[in-house]
């Protein structure tokens, strides 16, 4: 009986090793998985630490951004082309959506580049064709061509619909995108597909861009009246109006006609300043 007992005892250490390996192997695999998950989590689940800056700056008390970060993290982890993500564009898109949620047509978010372009226009100079545009009834439409500009010389008129810019349909573009495509360096060309009011056939208009100095106003003396055409409420409208006001006061004009037709607006403060010339203090 001794030999079989000896054989049985000699096999027990081998079986014990196998049992230990069966237990340890899943544990080791689980540890490797958790380590990999933790390392991966650092790379995508905490973009506020890895890829973004100033996430807590000016944060209103009590604001819960957990859902925002949940969606952000999901995009970072699961989006097909996540290597091509433009995080700054994502931030701008989120801010734009925040402002759009107000459903206020007079509130809009401008990116830094868009804001710089907008300020240039209000200061009275930019490079483009010289036309104010907007969206009317869902269609990109000319609000007013500026006097003495390539747009005016090409025959663009208020109410003209711009259906394409360089072959791209404008119904696929936001207003800001359309403006960016129409503007451009001096000497370059832009091709517009235009539909005139009360017409059914479009026409192609090729316009060469130029430096646009936005006209502020125009003064004409007509039958004892001073006729003043106000094109825009730009930053220098008040100083320019002072000049023509001096001419009017030294003339025999019995009154003033202010023409605001096709005026797209501008600085509210400048409009208030101008109104101060006519309203009691």
From TrEMBL:
<dbReference type="GO" id="GO:0030288">
    <property type="term" value="C:outer membrane-bounded periplasmic space"/>
</dbReference>
<dbReference type="InterPro" id="IPR036034">
    <property type="entry name" value="PDZ_sf"/>
</dbReference>
<dbReference type="InterPro" id="IPR005151">
    <property type="entry name" value="Tail-specific_protease"/>
</dbReference>
<dbReference type="GO" id="GO:0008236">
    <property type="term" value="F:serine-type peptidase activity"/>
</dbReference>
<dbReference type="Pfam" id="PF00595">
    <property type="entry name" value="PDZ"/>
</dbReference>
<dbReference type="InterPro" id="IPR029045">
    <property type="entry name" value="ClpP/crotonase-like_dom_sf"/>
</dbReference>
<keyword id="KW-0720">Serine protease</keyword>
<dbReference type="GO" id="GO:0006508">
    <property type="term" value="P:proteolysis"/>
</dbReference>
<dbReference type="Pfam" id="PF22694">
    <property type="entry name" value="CtpB_N-like"/>
</dbReference>
<comment type="similarity">
    <text>Belongs to the peptidase S41A family.</text>
</comment>
<dbReference type="InterPro" id="IPR001478">
    <property type="entry name" value="PDZ"/>
</dbReference>
<feature type="domain" description="PDZ">
    <location>
        <begin position="115"/>
        <end position="183"/>
    </location>
</feature>
<dbReference type="GO" id="GO:0007165">
    <property type="term" value="P:signal transduction"/>
</dbReference>
<dbReference type="Pfam" id="PF03572">
    <property type="entry name" value="Peptidase_S41"/>
</dbReference>
<protein>
    <recommendedName>
        <fullName>PDZ domain-containing protein</fullName>
    </recommendedName>
</protein>
<keyword id="KW-0645">Protease</keyword>
<dbReference type="GO" id="GO:0004175">
    <property type="term" value="F:endopeptidase activity"/>
</dbReference>
<keyword id="KW-0378">Hydrolase</keyword>
<dbReference type="InterPro" id="IPR055210">
    <property type="entry name" value="CtpA/B_N"/>
</dbReference>
